[in-house]
Design brief:
alpha/beta; five-stranded parallel sheet; 5 strands; 32% helix
């Protein structure tokens, strides 16, 4: 599975767009879900960052690039983990089979105050054919395209 942000000619550009969109909201303690090779870690001090990714190769890369940051291959139990000010899941929700359950689970890691943020990015359903065609041409990650469960627009996300 490796870091899909590096697979495809335009994938690094798309990843940078997601990071730039999220950066104005990144503050305090940050949980980076689906952290890949840890690009977001470069914008958060090590003591305020935890990255989680299922892919071992991505975690090895992240730990090599950011040796002072913390990375895990699975979620710690919410009751055993200090809460976060921000939970970021950039280009992740479209890969999970039950988005509502996923969002509910992520909320368990947020501080219980009104300034806590859940940051999501996801491709718009309008771009599904474009992404598929681009993946077949090597412009975007073919693995990411194959692993998409459902592309969600804002209206669909608000239902959850």
């Amino acid at each position: 599975m490796a870091d899909q942000g590096n697979e495809g000619l335009l994938s690094p550009f798309l990843r940078w767009r997601r990071i730039r969109a999220a950066l104005p909201y990144i503050r305090g303690r940050v949980l980076d879900v689906g952290c890949g090779s840890g690009v977001l870690a470069g914008f958060v001090s090590p003591e305020r960052y935890l990255g989680i990714d299922l892919d071992d190769d991505s975690l090895i890369s992240a730990k090599r690039k950011f040796p002072k940051h913390s990375f895990l291959s699975r979620f710690p139990a919410p009751e055993e983990q200090e809460k976060f000010d921000v939970v970021a899941a950039l280009a992740v929700i479209e890969h999970v089979p039950a988005p509502g359950d996923f969002l509910q689970m992520l909320s368990l890691y947020l501080n219980d105050n009104s300034s806590s943020l859940l940051i999501l990015t996801t491709p718009h359903p309008f771009g599904e054919r474009i992404h598929g065609a681009g993946a077949s041409l090597g412009l975007f990650s073919s693995h990411a395209n194959e692993e998409h469960e459902e592309l969600l627009d804002r209206k669909r996300l608000e239902l959850y």
